[in-house]
Automatic annotation (TrEMBL):
Transmembrane segments: none annotated. This is S66 peptidase family protein. The keyword Membrane does not apply. Keywords: Hydrolase.
């Protein structure tokens, strides 16, 4: 695939009240202990005005190794949901370690024929990247059902839950740009500057891994993009190494800005109040960036630390690191009456 063959941006159709949203096991299994969280996620989606159904593979206790089922079974169910005109959105119940196993089984033509919002993060971010590169689909890097809507959202203050529900609902049903995402005091300017560009990213290990496959994103996908990424688990040195992969691949030379999520359970990270110990995440990032003078906004609420601000892959955003603002400059979905790709 060359730069001239990059697909036009493909926005899913906006959802409307009563539309069917299916929660599916797109990667990891559902442990029986999290069944109450899943039921709570169903209640949240119903509160937002949607009908909700669980896909058949999403059965508590069902698993194959670390997955909900074999890659072939998961791909078969995913493709069936993509082809079903009644299904208007798909939300992953959780992440996992399986998406790499079925990238070659996805019905990309079904996505192009009837684009639908697909929500999730972690391993699901790999889906967003590949579907964006292959079809132009706007992917919703956002909270999953069980861990997010039924977990993180329920432990957040009531005002925060209401804010998230309104934000997600507006993003999925509205045809106006969201504008500035709600900022928090935790947001940090790691390198000042302003830029605009397409939002692209996910879990940093998945970004690095997919570039080693036949589903690697063409480097043109990163031209002028605002790269967002997060990581959970592992070592600080691993993050440094993944960033070096992005440097060697040329990605860091093409992007116009970077947004980094809240790190989660990464061993070996230092803190600002202990500067002589291990490096902080900001120090790691700036070390690899070197003299690349692009704005970097850190510690933004997306990723495994949850709950997630939605990061729609492919949408144009405005980033002002000094002012600590990130704005969605265009809608993530298209009006109900529109058909076909929309740039």
């Amino acid at each position: 695939m060359t730069g001239s063959e990059l697909p036009q941006l493909l926005r899913p159709r906006a959802l409307k009240p009563g539309d069917l949203v299916v929660i599916a096991a797109l990667s990891g299994p559902l442990d029986a202990v999290y069944e109450p969280d899943l039921q709570q996620a169903v209640a949240v989606l119903e509160q937002m005005g949607f009908r909700v159904r669980r896909a058949p593979l999403l059965e508590a206790g069902r698993h194959r190794w670390w997955s909900a089922a074999t890659p072939t079974e998961i791909a078969g169910e995913f493709n069936a949901l993509l082809r079903d005109p009644e299904v208007r959105a798909i939300i992953a119940h959780d992440g996992g370690q399986t998406v790499l196993g079925y990238l070659d089984l996805i019905d990309f033509e079904a996505i192009a024929a009837d684009p639908k919002p697909i929500l999730g993060y972690s391993d699901i971010s790999l889906l967003h990247l590949v579907l964006y590169a292959r079809t132009g689909l706007v992917g919703f890097h956002a909270d999953s059902a069980t861990r997010g809507l039924g977990g993180y959202w329920q432990s957040a203050p009531a005002a925060r839950r209401a804010e998230l529900e309104k934000l997600y609902s507006t993003l999925l049903t509205g045809d106006e740009a969201i504008g500035a995402l709600p900022a928090a005091p935790s947001w940090e300017c790691w390198r000042a500057g302003c830029t605009e560009g397409r939002l692209i990213g996910g879990v940093i290990n998945r970004i690095a891994l997919v570039q080693a496959t036949s589903f690697a994103l063409p480097l043109e996908c990163f031209d002028g993009a605002v790269l967002f990424w997060e990581e959970a688990g592992g070592q600080a040195s691993h993050v440094w190494s993944y960033l070096q992969v992005l440097r060697h691949s040329g990605i860091l030379d093409r992007i116009s800005g970077m947004v980094v999520g809240v790190p989660d359970a990464i061993d070996g990270l230092g803190t600002a109040d202990a500067p002589d110990a291990s490096p902080t995440l900001s120090e790691i990032v700036l070390d690899v960036l070197g003299d690349r003078d692009i704005p970097v906004l850190g510690n933004v609420e997306f990723g495994h630390a949850g709950p997630n601000l939605p990061m729609p892959v492919g949408i144009r955003v405005g980033l002002d690191a000094h002012q600590r603002t990130l704005s969605l400059l265009e809608p993530a979905v298209r009006p109900l009456a529109m058909t076909g790709p929309v740039g």
